[in-house]
C-alpha cells in the first residue's frame, strides 16, 4: 500500500519578523515572507516605505534589529548569528549596476566565479549565449548599449548560480521600449535558472508584469500579498486600489447593510448602521451614455442608476481616453476612461453608471 503525501517545499527564502529602526523610527516593521525557488515576488510600495532596507538586510549589507533570515530552511542570519554577504549565495542587481569598465565582458561575467579556468569560461559562454551577447564576449562595457550592459550585469549576477536574486529597481535606468523586452528576457532566464527572486519596485505595471506574487508594502509593513490578479481585483483598502490606478470615490452612510448613492444602492454586508463608507472604483469601470432628451438610461439591477455629469475635460492618452466629469449631484469630479479615441467637447452632458461588481466599499 502506498500513500501520496504532498510535503510543502521548503521555501528558498524565508524572512521572519524583520524589524529595522533608524533614529528611533521603525522603517521595516515586522516583515515576514517566503519565496519558493523559481518564483518571483515583487515588493511594491511607494518611495520610502522600507523596500530597499528589507532587501539590504536579506543581502546582509544592513543588519536587522530583530528577525531571522532562512535560505533553504537554514538560518543564515538573526541578531546573534550572521553569514557574511559574500557567503549567502545571493545575487544582486541594482539600478546602478555598474560593470567594471576596465574588464572585458567575459571577465565581468566571470568575476564572482571560482574553480578551473575552463569551467569558468564554459559558464561565461553559456550565460552570454542565453542573454544573446556572445558576440561581445571580448568587448568592453563602453562598447555596449545601456540595455546590453544591463544584460551583461544580469549574466554576471547569475554566473555563480545564486540561490536567490535580489533586484532593486533594476530596469528603471532603461528607456520604456527597451525595458519591456529586457524584463521579459530577464524573467525567462531567472525561471530557467530556478532562482528565487525578490524584486523591489514602486511601479505597479512592473510588478504586474514580473510577479508571481506581489507583496504590497506601506509604512514598513506588508499590507497585502497575493497573485497580481488577486491583489488588483480584491484590494484590502482604498490605498491598495489607488496604488494600481486612478480612483473615484463616493461617500455614503450605511443603513440596513446598504449604502445609498446617486448611482443607486450598494451592498455593505456586515457594516453597522450609521457607518460612513467610501465606495471606490476605477475610471475604467465607469460606463458612459449620451443624453437623450434630458434623460439617461433606465435603472437596472445590474448597472444601478445613471447619474448626470457634464464633461469638464477630455484627453486622448494613446490606448485610451480620459474624460473628467463635473457631477450634478454634488459638484464633484469623476473620471472615466474609454478605450481608443473619445474626446467629447467640454460642456457636453452625459450619463454615468458604474460597474457595481467592480466597486469596493470601505469604511471611511
Ligand atoms: N542608513 C539610513 N539611515 C537613516 N535612515 C535611513 C537609512 N536607510 C534608509 N533610511 C530611511 O528609511 C526609510 C525607508 O528607506 P528605503 O530606502 O528602505 O525605502 P524604499 O521603499 O526603498 O524607497 P525608495 O523606493 O525611494 O528607494 C526612508 O525614510 C529612508 O530615509
Automatic annotation (TrEMBL):
<dbReference type="InterPro" id="IPR003439">
    <property type="entry name" value="ABC_transporter-like_ATP-bd"/>
</dbReference>
<dbReference type="Pfam" id="PF00005">
    <property type="entry name" value="ABC_tran"/>
</dbReference>
<dbReference type="InterPro" id="IPR013611">
    <property type="entry name" value="Transp-assoc_OB_typ2"/>
</dbReference>
<dbReference type="InterPro" id="IPR003593">
    <property type="entry name" value="AAA+_ATPase"/>
</dbReference>
<dbReference type="InterPro" id="IPR017871">
    <property type="entry name" value="ABC_transporter-like_CS"/>
</dbReference>
<keyword id="KW-0067">ATP-binding</keyword>
<dbReference type="GO" id="GO:0043190">
    <property type="term" value="C:ATP-binding cassette (ABC) transporter complex"/>
</dbReference>
<feature type="domain" description="ABC transporter">
    <location>
        <begin position="13"/>
        <end position="244"/>
    </location>
</feature>
<dbReference type="GO" id="GO:0015408">
    <property type="term" value="F:ABC-type ferric iron transporter activity"/>
</dbReference>
<protein>
    <submittedName>
        <fullName>Fe(3+) ions import ATP-binding protein FbpC 2</fullName>
        <ecNumber>3.6.3.30</ecNumber>
    </submittedName>
</protein>
<keyword id="KW-0813">Transport</keyword>
<keyword id="KW-0406">Ion transport</keyword>
<keyword id="KW-1003">Cell membrane</keyword>
<dbReference type="GO" id="GO:0015697">
    <property type="term" value="P:quaternary ammonium group transport"/>
</dbReference>
<dbReference type="GO" id="GO:0016887">
    <property type="term" value="F:ATP hydrolysis activity"/>
</dbReference>
<dbReference type="InterPro" id="IPR027417">
    <property type="entry name" value="P-loop_NTPase"/>
</dbReference>
<keyword id="KW-0408">Iron</keyword>
<dbReference type="Pfam" id="PF08402">
    <property type="entry name" value="TOBE_2"/>
</dbReference>
<dbReference type="InterPro" id="IPR015853">
    <property type="entry name" value="ABC_transpr_FbpC"/>
</dbReference>
<dbReference type="InterPro" id="IPR050093">
    <property type="entry name" value="ABC_SmlMolc_Importer"/>
</dbReference>
<keyword id="KW-0472">Membrane</keyword>
<dbReference type="InterPro" id="IPR008995">
    <property type="entry name" value="Mo/tungstate-bd_C_term_dom"/>
</dbReference>
<dbReference type="GO" id="GO:0005524">
    <property type="term" value="F:ATP binding"/>
</dbReference>
<keyword id="KW-0547">Nucleotide-binding</keyword>
<keyword id="KW-0378">Hydrolase</keyword>
<keyword id="KW-0410">Iron transport</keyword>
Amino acid at each position: 500500500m502506498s500513500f501520496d503525501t504532498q510535503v510543502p517545499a521548503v521555501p528558498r527564502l524565508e524572512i521572519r519578523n524583520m524589524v529595522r529602526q533608524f533614529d528611533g523610527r521603525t522603517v521595516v516593521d515586522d516583515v515576514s515572507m517566503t519565496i519558493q525557488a523559481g518564483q518571483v515576488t515583487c515588493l511594491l510600495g511607494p518611495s520610502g516605505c522600507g523596500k530597499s532596507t528589507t532587501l539590504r538586510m536579506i543581502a546582509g549589507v544592513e543588519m536587522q534589529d530583530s528577525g531571522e533570515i532562512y535560505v533553504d530552511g537554514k538560518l543564515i542570519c538573526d541578531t546573534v548569528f550572521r553569514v557574511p554577504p559574500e557567503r549567502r549565495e545571493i545575487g544582486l542587481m541594482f539600478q546602478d549596476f555598474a560593470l567594471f569598465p576596465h574588464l572585458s565582458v567575459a571577465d565581468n561575467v566571470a568575476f564572482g566565479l571560482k574553480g578551473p579556468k575552463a569551467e569558468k569560461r564554459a559558464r561565461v559562454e553559456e550565460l552570454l549565449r542565453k542573454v544573446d551577447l556572445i558576440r561581445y564576449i571580448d568587448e568592453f562595457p563602453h562598447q555596449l548599449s545601456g540595455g546590453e550592459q544591463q544584460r551583461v550585469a544580469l549574466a554576471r549576477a547569475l554566473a555563480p548560480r545564486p540561490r536567490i536574486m535580489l533586484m532593486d529597481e533594476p530596469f528603471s535606468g532603461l528607456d520604456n521600449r527597451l525595458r519591456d523586452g529586457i524584463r521579459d528576457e530577464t524573467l525567462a532566464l531567472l525561471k530557467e535558472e530556478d532562482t528565487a527572486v525578490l524584486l523591489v519596485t514602486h511601479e505597479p505595471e512592473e510588478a504586474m508584469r514580473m510577479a508571481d506574487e506581489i507583496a504590497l508594502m506601506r509604512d514598513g509593513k506588508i499590507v497585502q500579498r497575493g497573485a497580481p490578479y488577486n491583489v488588483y481585483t480584491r484590494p484590502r483598502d482604498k490605498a491598495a486600489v489607488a496604488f494600481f490606478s486612478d480612483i473615484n470615490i463616493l461617500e455614503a452612510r450605511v443603513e440596513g447593510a446598504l449604502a445609498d448613492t446617486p448611482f443607486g444602492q450598494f451592498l455593505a454586508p456586515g457594516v453597522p448602521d450609521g457607518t460612513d463608507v467610501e465606495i471606490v472604483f476605477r475610471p475604467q469601470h465607469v460606463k458612459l451614455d449620451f443624453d437623450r432628451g434630458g434623460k439617461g438610461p433606465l435603472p437596472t439591477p445590474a448597472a444601478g442608476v445613471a447619474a448626470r455629469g457634464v464633461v469638464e475635460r477630455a484627453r486622448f492618452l494613446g490606448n485610451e481616453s480620459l474624460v473628467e466629469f463635473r457631477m450634478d449631484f454634488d459638484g464633484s469630479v469623476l473620471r472615466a476612461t474609454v478605450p481608443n479615441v473619445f474626446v467629447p467637447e467640454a460642456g457636453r452632458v452625459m450619463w454615468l453608471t458604474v460597474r457595481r461588481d467592480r466597486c469596493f466599499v470601505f469604511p471611511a
